[in-house]
Amino acid sequence: MVRRSRRSRRRRRHRGGVHTRAHRRRSRSAARSYRRHRRSSKCHRKGPAVCRSLAGCLWAAGPKYRFCRKSHNTRRRRRRR
């Protein structure tokens, strides 16, 4: 087996095109918004027993997921220009 040098290795291509500055700014903004909502949540960093006892919360769990499903989820909307 022949080992290639680091420079000659193929780069993996990302699907969906190029990350422009505007795209990065937008995704950072989305992350900031999500973090703000996450921190203000009353069930953040609490266990399933506490979450079930709170009003408006439902603990959803399955073989590959565990999260709190709230009665009102906040959705980010894009502003119209």
Description:
This protein is an alpha+beta fold and 81 residues long. The chain has a domain at 21-70. It is 32% helix and 12% strand. It has two helices and two strands. It has helices spanning 21-40, 48-53; strands spanning 57-61, 66-70. It has a two-stranded antiparallel ribbon. The termini are far apart. 2% of the residues are buried. The mean pLDDT is 79.
Provide the fold topology.
Blueprint: H1 21-40, H2 48-53, E1 57-61, E2 66-70
Antiparallel strand pairs: 1-2
What structural category arises from helix and sheet content?
alpha+beta
- What's the order of the H and E elements? HHEE
Main sheet: strand order: 1-2
Number of discrete helical segments: 2
Name the helicity range.
25-40%
Portion of residues in beta strands equals 5-15%
Number of strands: 2
Short description:
The protein has 81 residues and is α+β, with helices and mostly antiparallel strands.
Any descriptors?
81 residues, two-stranded antiparallel sheet, 2 helices, 32% helix
